[in-house]
Amino acid sequence: MAIFDGKSDSAQRISKLCGSEFPRAIRSTGNQLFVQFVSDLTVTADGFLAKYSIQDQGSTVESVTDKTTMAPAVTTTSPTTSPMIDPCDKACKRTGTMQTNFCTKEFVIVGKVLVIQQRDGTKLLRVAVIRSFKTGKLKTTQRRRGEVAKVMLPCPQCPKLKKGNVYIFMGTVNPSGVGVILPDSFVVNFKSNLLNILHNIAQRNRC
């Protein structure tokens, strides 16, 4: 995260931060502060967390010096708190219906779980795509028996999926083209009668 003392990244940079610890308070010299967030994809989380407050005009403001040429300017002033959001904090229960999730989610597929791996606290799946209704930016690879997609579960405990089972997946896609399923994502065991429902929803909703 880079912080600039002005309205754009052409202003003076007053801090550069990384990691998951709260930094010291950062103050601008005026009423504008430009904050630039960048993720390197090594951490799977919901995003960034920042807090700000407005100081009355004329009140005393201590000067802020640029420490960006050194190591990341972070201190452990609040070691018991962290801005990182635990994906398992969400209730392990899907929200909405197939109808409400169809357009709001980036991909909608029927797929069979071929492989389940756990790595760095995240479950990674290889899913054979049986039927795709929406793929968005979801990347697939062509295999001898059809297409295979990668799907990740940031919270490995939820939802509970089994190798060999067929599910309806409705989720988002990360910048690498991997499907993301959260604890509240819409995932259900596939049943033949649900296929007609999905067809009807797809015909009615031109997302």
Automatic annotation (TrEMBL):
Signal peptide: none annotated. Residues 1-55 form the CUB domain. Its main location: secreted. InterPro entries: CUB_dom, Netrin_domain, Netrin_module_non-TIMP, Sperma_CUB_dom_sf, TIMP-like_OB-fold. One of its GO terms (cellular component) is extracellular space. It comes from the Eukaryota. GO terms for molecular function: collagen binding; peptidase activator activity. GO terms for biological process: proteolysis. It is found in: Secreted. Keywords: Disulfide bond, Repeat, Secreted. Residues 88-207 form the NTR domain. This is Uncharacterized protein. It comes from Eptatretus burgeri.
